[in-house]
Amino acid sequence: MDRRKFFASTGLSAAGLLVSKSLFGFDPQSSRAQPAVNGQPPKYDIVREMLKYPKIDAHVHCDLGNGNLEAQKKFAEILLDYAERFNIRKLVLSKPVTRLIKGIPDASPEAFIEHNNIILGLMKLHPDRITGSFTFNPIHLKASLEEIKRCVDQGMVGAKTYYQTKISDPSFYPIVEKMIDLKMIIHTHAETQLGVGGYRMKYNGNKPKNVSIPEDFVAIAARYPEAMFQHAHIGGGGDWEYMCKALKNSPNVYVDTSGSNNEEHMIDFALEQLGEDRLLFGSDNCYYQSVGKVLASNLTEVQRKKLFFDNFNNILKKGGNHVD
Ligand SMILES: [Zn+2]
Question: Tens-digit pLDDT profile for the chain (324 aa)?
């Protein structure tokens, strides 16, 4: 049975169950083997296939809703359990400020410093498996630059911003220039405004006005061709075809393939539009979907290797932070 037929006939949720069987109370070594059919070993073993590829998770969060370090430590243990079982060698962890105050995103330096402290705390506890991306808000330029220095000095490897300020906003310019000097990527939450969470909505429907859309990435990437940008989660519920087409001619914009949405052909379409060097693996804490959609794609062995590991490792290499 080829890969597509396997997924078509079992459904990804069933495929996910095969993986989850090994996650909760089963030894992955013993559950890895699928039952023989008529004495023949199975042609396609999803767990073995999944384990074949070492991974870097370029988009993963600690608990976004809880600021307490003790609770975060427990959450990190769960993440590390997933990492172990999914052969994820490095987690690029972040905690963007997602809280709204009276409907407006919290933009204060106190908030981003507090959030970065959580990541720094978890990095110190698990230095071999967890690294981090710092968050900040460029409208507070001095505080942001100081925060970037503080976080880089303690080993963080990139930037992560949310919907406080659009990536194309002029307040980002000095930060982008700093990131060029550091040779680090800027990962920004992104949506299409055509659809979120699997439903189609009208333009500007109920979203903070500063959410970055693909056009914002195109604009900042053209202004700073030597900078590197990561457009978050093409599987995050937006219109991924639109995203990929919009970013096609912006060679310094990468996309991560994370998100709970895993419509058929998403990965193949991204490859067709963006090429094999600009796709990054990320889970956004959705492991079955994010791994399953890559395994279900028609990418070659080499292309899968690039997506799961090499592309992001090459980015890390520029800043001297690569895994191998
Ligand atoms: Zn995320």
Answer: 444 443 443 333 333 434 443 443 334 444 345 566 777 777 788 999 999 999 999 999 999 987 688 999 999 999 999 999 999 999 999 999 998 888 788 889 999 999 999 999 999 999 999 999 999 999 999 999 999 999 999 999 999 999 899 999 999 999 999 999 999 999 999 988 654 544 555 555 567 778 899 999 999 999 999 999 999 999 998 889 999 999 999 999 999 999 998 889 999 999 999 999 999 999 999 999 999 999 999 999 999 999 999 999 999 999 999 998
- What are the residue ranges spanned by the domains of the chain? 53-318
Three-class secondary structure assignment of the chain: CCHHHHHHHHCHHHHHHHHHHHHCCCCHHHHHCCCCECCECCCCCHHHHHHCCCEEEEEEECCCCCCCHHHHHHHHHHHHHHHHHCCEEEEEEECCCCCEECCEECCCHHHHHHHHHHHHHHHHHCCCCEEEEECCCCCCHHHHHHHHHHHHHCCCCEEEECCCCCCCCHHHHHHHHHHHHHCCEEEECECCCCEECCEECCCCCCCCCCCECHHHHHHHHHHCCCCEEEECCCCCCCCHHHHHHHHCCCCCEEEECCCCCCCCCHHHHHHHHHCCCCEECCCCCCHHHHHHHHHCCCCCHHHHHHHHHHHHHHHHHHCCCCCC
CA of residue 283 to ligand 1 center, whole Å: 8
CA of 36 from ligand 1 middle (Å) equals 39
- CATH homologous superfamily for the domain 53-318: Metal-dependent hydrolases (3.20.20.140)
pTM of the model: 0.86
CA of 44 to the centre of ligand 1 (A): 31
Give the Å distance between the CA of 159 and the centre of ligand 1: 13
